[in-house]
Amino acid sequence: MNAATIAEQLSARLGVILAGRSTPYAPDTITPPAGYVFGPTSEYHQSYQNGLTRVRVSVTVAVAHQPLSVAWKALAGYISDTGDTSVKACLETGVYTAFDTIVVTRSVVGDVTIGGVTYKGAQFDLDITGSGA
Asked: pLDDT tens digits for the chain (133 residues)?
């Protein structure tokens, strides 16, 4: 599996719910809401004859910091299991060529700093598998 291709495909899919404001890397600046892909860490050769590689990737979504009530409403939609702005639903229903399976395993809400500016945000951990080399 190619790390750059994985990040590009995840970013493109995430852009569906973020009006295209997603990058396959941590950006220097954003206009919220925005997202980016971070990682991956890889575990090679998870099965006989190099048949499976597991990659763990993080995706971050950042929203405006103030007012907090507005930020929380936006984040609630992104961290939900279902809905039009659910990161889990968006990413897990995508069609990808860079890997075979994807599961969003966790989300953590907190502050996200991008280019020295603090936003409210959520980090999503992804477990991705695909054919090994």
From this structure: 888 999 999 999 999 999 999 999 999 999 999 999 997 776 666 555 566 788 899 999 999 988 888 899 999 999 999 999 999 999 999 999 999 999 999 999 999 999 999 999 999 999 999 875 5
Which pTM does this prediction carry?
A: 0.90
Say how far apart CA 95 and CA 43 lie, in whole Å.
23
Sign of CA dihedral 84, 54, 107, 6: negative
SS3 22: strand
